[in-house]
Amino acid sequence: MKKFLKILLYLFLATVLWVAILKYVPICYTPVMLRRSIEYAGDGRDYKFRKQWEPLENIDHKMVLAVVASEDNLFMTHNGFDIESMKKAYERSKKGKKVWGGSTISQQTAKNVFTFGTRTYFRKAVEAYFTFLIELIWGKERIMEVYLNVIETGTNIYGVEAASKVYFNHSSKKMSAYEAALIAAALPSPRKYSVSNPGPYMRKRASQVQGLMYKIGEVKFEY
């Protein structure tokens, strides 16, 4: 029993150290990227991804507003988990309906950085653990910075900087409100929805997100 507890303690200390280090260094590769590359290579598809790390100050604030409006409007006030949204997602899943909006930005960040993103209860448990740690150690500003840099934004595209250059031919620093809303609108299924050639659903959803952005106005991080 003592040996088992000692192993747990070492694992805990190792994960805390890991999270602490990642608070300060750019995250250039994630388990989710590795998983996608293996999947694509196995299917004979192009597995080379496009990604470019950008500090948060180099990303237009409209992108922050867009993902908060679209993905997690309580981002600045919750502790990493939106219990009400999780309950609604659970009820929808029991009824066999599409689950959308159950995970916070913090949870999505933990999923992308610390797991392979597989749909298992073990992955959800690991995600919850790391969500707690990044909320405690990183804080909201760093979580947002990492999220905007590692989130899947299209086939073989990760982060909003790469997405902005691929879809709009300019950096994320020059992003318009509608462009930010388009990227955010596609995030639930970035390989399904087209940002560069949006259909009726995407145009409608992007307009809704843009309207919510104006209502939020600004996301202020504490320094």
Structure write-up:
The protein is mainly alpha-helical. The chain is built from ten helices and three strands; from the N terminus they run ααβαααααββααα. It has helices at residues 2-22, 31-42, 61-71, 83-94, 105-114, 121-137, 140-150, 160-168, 177-186, 200-216; strands at residues 50-51, 152-154, 157-158. The chain has a three-stranded mixed beta sheet with strand order 1-3-2, with helices on one face. α5 (105-114) crosses α6. The longest helix has 21 residues, at 2-22. It is globular.
Mean pLDDT: 91
Structural class: mainly alpha
What is the global morphology? globular
Low-confidence stretches: none
Oligomer: single chain
The number of helical segments is 10
Helix fraction bin: 55-70%
End-to-end span in angstroms? 44 Å
Q: Major β-sheet, in short?
A: 3 strands, mixed
In short, what is this structure?
This protein is 58% helix and 3% strand. It is mainly alpha-helical.
